[in-house]
Amino acid sequence: MFRELSEFHDWLAQRRAANTYEVSVVPLDQLDGWGFDPDSGNIRHRTGRFFSVEGIDVTTDHRETASWTQPIILQPEIGILGILVKEFDGVPHCLMQAKMEPGNINTLQLSPTVQATRSNYTRVHQGNPVPYLEHFVAPRSGRVVFDALQSEQGSWFLNKRNRNMIIEVDGDVPVLDDFCWLSADQLKELVHVENLVNMDSRTVLSGMSFLAPSGGDGDALHTTEELLSWFTEAKARYQLDRRVIKLSEVKNWVTSAERISHELGRFFEVVGVDVRATNREVGQWSQPMFAPTCRGVIAFISKRIRGTTHLLVHARTEPGTGDVVEMSSTINCSPENYREFPADRRPRFLDYVLSAPPERVLVDVVHSEEGGRFYHAENSYRLVEADDDFPVEVPEDYAWMTVDQLTNFVRYGNHVNVGARSLLTCIAR
């Protein structure tokens, strides 16, 4: 435990110095254990485990473009993202890990107590066991505070889910070298530090409110029942058809021995990395990763309605979304990808968010996305306060929700998308 956050930052610097990391971008055809399938062009591991990179053909009536094809990650197994919580002198503390991921722009970030795919925690790689795993697999001791299957990035994963868990324990827990206890209040401060609290931590921490549940709908504009009806209506109204195809059949993308990239140089690339680390379950490995070509923006517009802060939530469709739409932040996109689009095809409210004066930007912090699959992927997480003229009446695929209402929907899988969950953690008070 740290009395002051300066002590934590000293500890993190010591952990960074205590270990050695090396990540090199290498050609896809030089990845150890990975290869292009000669028939489909798909990228697979020789064991058939971990994940694969394949193609997807998408048709929808709920995006700026009606149809397209793209590479996508297929990882059907469910991983565990779990945080241990223990009270010290009546104050809840979280056991966090200083974890290296190859895609992290600064290598070392704060991860949950356990952050492991099923292939990893079942030791397909024949490496070291995952510390503290016994607290998150049955039979387990401790009180389950939060346990939900949550979606991952629908733009890059097809139907990917991880089990998000918070387990409260009473007994002694040995603290290993790369782990530390941080109070909930300390974590609320640290999420405002650029590229420090990783995506997996942010999504699990969005369930922390269930340690002390809030009240009901209060002075909300809509009841929970009305919001569930709105969400169900959006699922029924819009169409999303996906078909997995061979990676070699993806159109407008160029595949070489080096990488896979879009012919216009937009969106993302598929690259290879070679990794060496002294404090991971295995000391060396190779893998493909998705590398976005520009920084994204994930933003909520907020407005005081009936004396209570509301967030403008979007029912958003992504190619890998499990059930047509999920509850998303007002904006969730990479603006550079839309720079040549006419105004009527740009994401709604994007220009409003980008042009907001500094005094109305209440939160603005840059965070990395999941560093195990995405290379140097960053988003600017923002909370923008609407001006007085911003309407209460909004388009049919948007709805105003209080922070408590949206947080309560986090309890259920495939409701709130990963960007919105991460941003909820950043705006928690």
TrEMBL record:
<feature type="domain" description="dTDP-4-dehydro-6-deoxy-alpha-D-glucopyranose 2,3-dehydratase">
    <location>
        <begin position="224"/>
        <end position="427"/>
    </location>
</feature>
<dbReference type="InterPro" id="IPR038153">
    <property type="entry name" value="EvaA-like_sf"/>
</dbReference>
<dbReference type="GO" id="GO:0016829">
    <property type="term" value="F:lyase activity"/>
</dbReference>
<dbReference type="Pfam" id="PF03559">
    <property type="entry name" value="Hexose_dehydrat"/>
</dbReference>
<protein>
    <submittedName>
        <fullName>Oxidase EvaA</fullName>
    </submittedName>
</protein>
<dbReference type="InterPro" id="IPR005212">
    <property type="entry name" value="EvaA-like"/>
</dbReference>
<feature type="domain" description="dTDP-4-dehydro-6-deoxy-alpha-D-glucopyranose 2,3-dehydratase">
    <location>
        <begin position="6"/>
        <end position="207"/>
    </location>
</feature>
